[in-house]
Amino acid sequence: MLAGKRIFSLSSSFLRPRNMSTAIKMDLPNGTFASHLIDLPPTDVTFTKEELMHYLKEMYTMRRMEITCDTEYKARNIRGFCHLYDGQEAVAMGMQSALKAEDSWITSYRCHCIAYLRGCSVEEVIAELLGFDNGATKGKGGSMHFYRKKHNFFGGQGIVGAQVPVGAGLAFAAKYNSADPNNMPIAVAGYGDGAANQGQIWESANMAKLWGLPLLLVIENNRYGMGTSTSRHSCNDKYYTTGGTVIPGIRINGMNVLSVKRGFEYARAYASSGKGPMYVELDTYRYHGHSMSDPGTTYRTRDEVSSIRDAKDPIEYVKKLLVEVHNLATADEVKEVEKQVRNDVAEALKKAKSGKPPAVKEAYTEVYVAQDGKTQEYPPFLRLPDYAKSLIH
Question: Environment class of residue 297 by beta-carbon count within 10 Å: exposed (0-12), middle (13-18) or buried (19+)?
Fold first, then answer.
């Protein structure tokens, strides 16, 4: 498996490996799930060697990609905001494994890895952060604004919590366009614990419940928001219970990819069947600070970060299942995957750096569309910070 390339058809298997070896069944640890107003999800999971190797490859690609972005930011090749995802890989990987191609996904500004899983290449991700025309959105979006409509990824959002109302709109469209009200595509609106008490989230949840929308309100709880622990910024930090007496919720161990997949299969089935929205809280952890400007050590200790990494790292868990617990792969096989991923990410970085800033004409494109929903219209004037340099079409 090559880390920077897709060997699965997006239109058929949606990035899932073919199951070729014997399936293994096991129970997830106690405490994997908690629930509110609904039964706990099942705790049995089934997987094959191919699936675990696929998770290892994809999650390690995400890790190496984000570490590469860290290096390029410190070298001042990437500028502006940059929010890295290392530590949270099991969340995105488990969700992607449970979702279907027709399901919509919108998330927060911590979106590089989700964009990758939804069809962007490593080259496109890094090039976008560099601001180059070979980026995922031609260098016009940057770190917080990836987008891949053909794979139903509706991007990251730079305004805290503002993606959730859009997610409710995606859920409305899913229900409106579905031929089967008991088997609808769903929409995922992801946000962090720092956004969990935004008013627009409450309003979106209220409308989703009133209208029976297939919406999953997904809280990636990495415990510190922008640097304040959840116990200090939320009177109720059990976010899966914020639906009160009407909207159910579940909490999932977000450091375990199998737990996330199993819990999300359960949540997806609920929303898809016409029962309305659900809160899904993923208990996870980020190794970097909130953004590259945050060292991440003023509100937590280095020992805390290292202890989480040692005890709960999501990639190490998959490696342990493969090599130690189920004897599905050798340590050398795992090292070979990691070596290939490192090489592929390094090659993707070279290709990303071969790009160039977008042409001035790109400032006019993809701004307005005509009433037919297809034909582009071009604004006659675009003001720049220096008025004298504003663009006239």
Answer: exposed
| Structure confidence at residue 105 (pLDDT) | 98
Each residue's pLDDT tens digit, 248-300: 999 999 999 999 999 999 999 999 999 999 999 999 999 999 999 999 999 99
What are 248's two structure tokens? 């159910």
Question: Is the full-model pTM beyond 0.85?
Answer: yes
Residue 52 to residue 252: CA distance in whole angstroms = 19
Return d(Cα 157, Cα 143) in angstroms, integer.
10
Name the residue range of residue 366's domain: 359-393
Give all strands (DSSP E) within 179-318, no chain letters: 187-192, 215-221, 249-253, 278-283
What would the two tokens of residue 189 be?
Answer: 């609106």
Report yes or no on 10 lying in a domain.
no
CA distance 11 to 365: 28
Residues 70 and 84 in one domain: yes
Residue 8 has pLDDT above 80, yes or no: no
Residue recorded with tokens 């069809």: 119
Residues 178 and 31 in one domain: yes
Q: What DSSP state is assigned to residue 153?
A: B
Tokens representing 6 are: 């897709």
Q: How far is CA 148 from the centre of its chain?
A: 13
Contacts of range 123-127, beta carbons closer than 8 Å, 24 or more positions apart = 123/4, 123/348, 123/349, 123/351, 123/352, 124/352, 125/65, 125/69, 126/65, 126/68, 126/69, 126/72, 126/348, 126/349, 126/352, 127/351, 127/352, 127/353, 127/355
CA distance 367 to 140: 11
Domain count, the chain: 2
Residues 342 and 386 in one domain: no
Do 247 and 325 fall within a single domain? yes
* Measured distance CA(321)–CA(18) in Å, rounded: 19
235 Cβ partners below 8 Å, 6+ apart?
none
SS (H, E, C) 284-311: CCCCCCCCCCCCCCCCCCHHHHHHHHHH
What region does 192 belong to: left with phi over 0, alpha with psi -120 to 50, or beta? beta
Whether residue 366 sits in one domain with residue 332: no
Tokens, residue 279? 């809160």
- Residues whose CB is less than 8 angstroms from the CB of residue 146 and which lie 6 or more positions away in sequence, other chains included: 111, 112, 114, 115, 120, 125, 128, 136, 137, 153, 155, 156
